[in-house]
Design brief:
The chain has 480 residues and is an alpha+beta fold. It is 38% helix and 18% strand.
Length: 480
């Protein structure tokens, strides 16, 4: 949608073809028993990257979307009962750090300086720049090397911070974009600067209302939206994409085609008739993909003002659990939970006197973890709800009004996600920038990519940044 808005704002007649019955891709939603459940991203950072999409045509995002501040950003909770409220209010954050280790307050300040430098190099300078050849990557190497980009997020955090809980508090963010803190490049510490400057936000009505606002503006500008008709083939002649065909039989010629679908699906399936599609799909099959997710959506009787909008319920292990998810491909007995509770900020997400939640647990993708999710899902769902009951809501099972789960196989079936991965390619250094999906294909010169599998990567700022990089190429190419 961000790419479509940019193209339409530039006067390029754009058609969006959406596979699902509702737009937004991973930012899907369900309405059930009066509850609204967002199916994808729930954390909005860097509002200016969204506001710019309206400003391109002289409009104001506030006309279509209302953002609400979230405070604290996250409450982190450990099995021993310790809570850590993370925000960008310095005196509050310093107090939280000092409770665990007063010496780490100074370490955090030094870490923030590092994060600010990485933010400037990795996000401001490179976040919307397309890496189309290896030379462009080489130009970025000195600055990235100076910031020790080869080190992991956890390693860099640990060089500033001594207390293990604070190390976890400052490194878990990479999990929100599919990255293992022990392997993801230290460049991703820029998230801290991004959150500190821009805050953490929520769209009134859910992330689905952000999508609705984007569509409203896209159509206001004259864009065309097609819903519920999956693309089945992008036809090519030589090095040109010529025509798009959908499941319903719709066929149309386009001067340029951009895919925000799963990167493997885009090449293996949509370009299956093209030699380029087949060859690059083989290359992609050798890459590392980020984990899957198991998500329990549930609505409860009662309201919970003491449970903040975002919580991380850490399990008894940190690195060991991540090893099981990313490397060992097992379904461990323990887990960490991201608990989303939007009704504490926005009561409109549930009927009066009730609350909307989802509990998200990272799991190995289907290439590593071979389980029958129809059989395992109900068991894991109960264990997750039991843990939330033990730590937060003792009578949770008695209060449930409605619930359903979403497993890796659902990501695979509904989103054509390779191996059920929730975030596409794993964001390690050797799969970043030029090593990630290129914003314009190397062979089919009017076929473009945007989204999580493309530079710069997953997360709302990442995919909106990819749209900016791709739009710049498309606008220039279509003008020539």
């Amino acid at each position: 949608m961000a790419l479509a808005m940019r193209l339409q704002s530039a006067g390029i007649q754009t058609t969006v073809i959406e596979a699902r019955d509702k737009p937004g891709g991973r930012a899907y939603f369900w309405e059930k028993d009066g509850f609204t459940f967002d199916g994808g991203p729930t954390v909005i950072t860097d509002p200016p990257c969204l506001e710019e999409l309206w400003e391109l045509s002289g409009h104001d995002m506030k006309d279509d979307v209302e953002l609400m501040k979230v405070h604290p950003f996250y409450r982190l909770n450990w099995p021993d009962g310790h809570n850590f409220d993370y925000s960008n209010v310095e005196e509050e954050l310093f107090a939280e750090i000092a409770k665990l280790n007063p010496e780490d307050v100074e370490g955090y300040q030094k870490f923030l300086e590092y994060s600010a430098g990485v933010y400037e190099e990795g996000y401001v300078k490179l976040g919307t720049v397309p890496f189309l050849d290896f030379k462009s990557m080489l130009k970025a190497v000195p600055a990235l090397a100076k910031k020790q980009a080869w080190r992991s997020v956890y390693s860099i955090v640990s060089s500033f911070i001594k207390h293990e809980k604070i190390r976890e508090a400052l490194s878990f963010h990479t999990l929100l974009v599919g990255g293992n803190p022990f392997k993801t490049s230290a460049i991703y510490t820029l998230i801290h600067k991004l959150e500190k400057d821009g805050g953490v936000w929520w769209t009134r009505g859910g992330t689905n209302r952000l999508i609705a606002g984007m569509i409203r503006h896209f159509e206001r500008l004259g864009g065309t939206m097609m819903i519920g008709d999956p693309v089945t083939q992008v036809h090519t002649i030589g090095n040109k994409a010529t025509e798009v065909e959908t499941k319903s039989g719709f066929k149309q010629h386009f001067d340029a085609v951009a895919s925000n679908g799963d990167i493997m699906h885009s090449y293996r399936d949509l370009l299956s008739e093209s030699p380029r599609g087949k060859s690059y799909a083989k290359t992609l099959a050798r890459k590392k993909f980020s984990p899957g997710l198991f998500v329990v959506h549930f609505g409860l009787e009662g309201t919970w003002p003491g449970i903040p909008h975002h919580m991380i319920l850490f399990g008894p292990r940190y690195k060991g659990l991540l090893d099981d998810i990313y490397d060992n491909g097992v379904l461990p007995q323990d887990f960490s939970i991201y608990l989303h509770h939007p009704t504490v900020t926005d009561p409109s997400m549930a009927p009066k006197g009730q609350s909307t939640f989802y509990a998200l647990v990272p799991v190995a993708h289907m290439g590593k973890l071979a389980v029958d999710w129809d059989e395992v899902g109900p068991v894991l769902e109960k264990r997750i709800l039991d843990e939330i009951g033990r730590r937060l809501i003792p009578d949770i099972h008695d209060r449930i009004v409605t619930k359903f789960s979403y497993a890796p196989k659902d990501f695979q079936e509904d989103l054509s996600a390779h191996l059920g991965s929730a975030f596409s390619l794993e964001p390690v250094l050797t799969q970043s920038a030029w090593f990630r999906g290129h914003n314009r294909d190397d062979v089919i010169d009017n076929f473009y990519l945007t989204g999580a599998g493309t530079h710069p990567g997953a997360g709302i700022p990442g995919v909106v940044g990819s749209a900016k990089a791709t739009a710049g190429l498309m606008i220039e190419d279509l003008a020539s």
